[in-house]
Amino acid sequence: MSYFDEYFKDIHAGNGFIHSCPELMECVQRTGFLPLLESGIQGYSAESLMAEECRFTQFDDGSWEWPLWQWKGSVVREGNCVYGKFFAGKAGFISREWWPDFFNWRRSQHPAPEEGSIEDIILSTLREHGSMITRELRAACDFTGKNMRSKFDAYVSRLQMATYIVTEDFVYPVDKHGREYGFGWSLLTTPERLLDYDTCQCDRTPEQSHQRMVDHLSRLLPTATEKQIMRLVK
Fold first, then answer.
1. CA–CA dist 35, 42 (Å, integer)
2. How far apart are CA 32 and CA 26, in angstroms?
3. What pTM did the predictor assign?
4. Separation of alpha carbons 185 and 188, rounded Å
5. CA–CA–CA angle 111, 204, 224 (5° rounding)
6. DSSP conformational letter for 112
7. Residues 4, 6, 7, 8: what is their CA dihedral angle, to the nearest 10 degrees?
8. Which of 2, 3, 137, 171 has its CA 20 to 30 A from that of 30?
9. What is the pLDDT of residues 169-217, one digit of tens each?
10. What is the DSSP string of 86-110?
11. Beta carbons of 187 and 169 less than 8 angstroms apart
12. Rounded to whole angstroms, how far apart are CA atoms 92 and 100?
């Protein structure tokens, strides 16, 4: 019986079971790989697993409450996991237990950026500063003209998919009362800086790491198709 079979019997009925940040952290550790939002596999995302009272709520005055969005920073800081756009360009969590295999496979498929390329400039700038919020990194790399934001974000997303960039934390603006507001900005860094170089290493071949992840996700998600599983780890 898979983790989802045992603990998420009511997922398809919309009855999530995560009521708190610690429960979300536990879920990341139990699953190993957990997309934040819709993943293309029914029920397989942190958003899908939220209890009804913890889902996005829009109030009449235009304000909103979204515990998942508020908790994700704590999960990244304290949840023994790595966060970034890892799943077909969409964000999610990977436990530290599984990170070396994921890192091993993805790096084998995406060699280091060519020296002098835009990806290399972005990555070198980030390494020089240690960590930067996205808009600071964009400005430092001179992506300041019209339509530059979307182009820059595409480069950063590709570097995240290749495991060269991860999210260290989230930074929020503060209002005059000292309260955080908005959706926040990603504080970006490299996995080697976040975890250290040795923690990212794996004693398996990339192909062994790939097969290990596929086997794990196939057991975790027995109703998922081979194509859906491959899309998560490719």
1. 12
2. 10
3. 0.90
4. 9
5. 85
6. P
7. 50
8. 171
9. 999 888 888 777 777 899 999 999 999 999 999 999 999 999 999 999 9
10. EETTEEEEEETTTHHHHHHHHHHHS
11. yes
12. 16
